[in-house]
C-alpha cells in the first residue's frame, strides 16, 4: 500500500450504518487503500462497537475525538476526506465544517433538513472547491442513472404522471430511536425511509416542483408515520407519492413513470429498472452495469473517473419539496406554490 494511493478518512459517527460503511472500507483495501485516521463519536458505546471491527481485522483502533471542531483543528493536515454518518439535523453544520477544513465529503442521506441549509451547503461547496457527494442509494444506482439518462434524452417521450409509494413497519421498529425524535431527525417516516422516495423521484424527473399539496398523519407519535403528496412539475406533469410507516413487517417500494412513449418501473433504492414500451405487452428489465457502493463511487468521482452521480443540487430539489410538504401539511393540504 503506497502512501501516494492512500485515502485518509475521518469517520464522523460510529452508529450501525457507519459501522457497515467501515466494514466496506476495510474490505476494499486491496482495490482502494484507505485508512480511518480518526473518528468523531460522542457515545462511548458506539465507539466501543466500532472498535471491535478494527480489533477483529487485526488493525489499530483509530482514536476518537468527539468534538468535531477540535478534530478538524488537530487532524485536518492528516486527512483527505470526511465520511459523515450522523443524525439528519447534524449534517449541515458537520459537512460545512469539513468542507471549510479542506476535506472532500461523502455525506449520508438525507443531505440536510431544509432548503435553506441545502442552498448554503452548495455555496460552501462552490467557495471551497471541495467535493460533496450524497450517499443516496437511488442516485448512486446504475439503474436510476440509466433511467434518468433515458428520460432526459427524450427516448420515452415526455413525462405525464409519476406514482411512487414506500412502506415499512417503521413506527414500531424505531420506537425510542433518534429517528423518531424530530429535533435531530428533521421529520418522521417520510423524511427517513421516505426520503429515498423523495430523492429518487426528484432525481428522475430532473425538474422543479411548482405546486405541492400534502397530508401527514402522526398516528399517536410526535412525527409523521403516514404521508400523502400530490404535486405538479414545472413541465405540467403530475406526481403522487405515498408513505406508510405503519405497515405489516415489510420494507418495499415502487415508482412508475408514465410517459408518452413508455412506462418506467423502478424502486426508490434503484434496485431495478424495467420499461414497457409502446406496443409491448409487459415490462422488460433494462440491462445496466453492475452496481458498486457509495464508497467506491465517491472515490471514483474524487479520482476523476466519473461524474458525481449524487450532487447536492439533487438534494436541494428534494429539500425544497420537503419544505413544501411540511408547509402544506401544516395547512391541512393547502396547495403550496414554489417560486
The main pleated sheet reads as: 9 strands, mixed
Secondary-structure class:
alpha/beta
Q: Please report the number of helical segments.
A: 12
Computed over alpha carbons, the radius of gyration is 20 Å
Helices and strands, in order, run as EHEHHEHEHEHHEHHHEEEEEEEHHE
CATH-defined superfamily of the largest domain: Dihydrodipicolinate Reductase, domain 2
Mean pLDDT: 96
What is the terminal-to-terminal distance?
52 Å
Which consecutive residue ranges, at least 5 long each, have pLDDT under 50? none
- Indicate the overall shape: globular
Portion of residues within helices? 25-40%
Taken as a percent bin, the fraction of beta residues is 15-25%
Task: Give the CATH class of the largest domain.
Answer: Alpha Beta
What is the strand arrangement across the widest sheet? 13-12-11-10-6-9-8-7-14
Question: Structurally, how many domains make up the residues?
Answer: 2
Secondary-structure arrangement, i.e. CATH architecture of the largest domain = 2-Layer Sandwich
Count of DSSP strands: 14
What's the CATH topology label of the largest domain? Dihydrodipicolinate Reductase, domain 2
Amino acid at each position: 500500500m503506497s502512501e501516494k494511493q492512500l485515502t485518509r478518512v475521518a469517520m464522523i459517527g460510529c452508529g450501525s450504518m457507519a459501522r457497515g460503511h467501515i466494514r466496506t472500507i476495510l474490505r476494499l483495501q486491496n482495490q482502494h487503500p484507505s485508512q480511518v485516521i480518526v473518528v468523531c463519536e460522542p457515545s462511548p458505546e458506539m465507539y466501543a462497537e466500532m472498535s471491535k471491527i478494527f480489533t477483529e481485522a487485526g488493525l489499530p483502533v483509530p482514536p476518537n475525538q468527539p468534538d468535531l471542531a477540535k478534530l478538524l483543528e488537530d487532524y485536518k493536515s492528516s486527512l483527505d476526506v470526511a465520511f459523515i454518518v450522523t443524525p439528519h439535523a447534524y449534517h449541515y453544520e458537520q459537512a460545512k465544517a469539513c468542507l471549510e477544513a479542506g476535506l472532500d465529503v461523502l455525506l449520508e442521506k438525507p443531505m440536510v433538513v431544509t432548503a435553506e441549509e441545502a442552498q448554503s451547503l452548495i455555496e460552501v461547496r462552490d467557495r471551497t472547491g471541495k467535493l460533496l457527494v450524497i450517499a443516496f442509494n437511488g442516485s448512486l444506482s446504475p439503474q436510476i442513472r440509466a433511467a434518468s439518462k433515458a428520460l432526459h434524452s427524450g427516448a420515452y417521450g415526455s413525462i405525464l404522471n409519476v406514482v411512487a409509494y414506500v412502506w415499512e413497519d417503521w413506527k414500531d421498529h424505531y420506537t425510542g430511536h433518534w429517528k423518531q425524535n424530530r429535533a435531530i431527525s428533521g421529520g418522521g417516516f417520510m423524511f427517513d425511509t421516505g426520503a429515498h422516495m423523495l430523492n429518487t423521484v426528484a432525481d428522475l424527473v430532473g425538474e422543479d416542483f411548482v405546486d405541492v399539496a400534502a397530508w401527514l398523519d402522526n398516528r399517536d407519535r410526535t412525527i409523521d408515520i403516514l404521508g400523502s403528496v400530490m404535486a405538479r412539475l414545472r413541465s405540467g406533469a403530475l406526481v403522487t407519492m405515498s408513505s406508510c410507516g405503519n405497515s405489516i413487517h415489510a420494507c418495499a417500494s415502487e415508482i412508475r413513470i408514465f410517459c408518452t412513449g413508455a412506462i418506467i418501473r423502478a424502486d426508490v433504492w434503484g434496485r431495478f429498472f424495467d420499461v414497457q414500451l409502446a406496443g409491448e405487452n409487459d415490462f422488460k428489465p433494462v440491462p445496466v452495469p453492475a452496481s458498486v457502493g457509495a464508497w467506491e463511487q465517491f472515490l471514483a468521482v474524487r479520482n476523476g473517473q466519473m461524474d458525481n452521480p449524487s450532487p447536492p443540487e439533487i438534494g436541494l430539489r428534494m429539500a425544497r419539496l420537503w419544505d413544501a410538504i411540511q408547509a402544506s401539511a401544516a395547512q391541512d393540504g393547502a396547495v403550496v406554490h414554489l417560486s
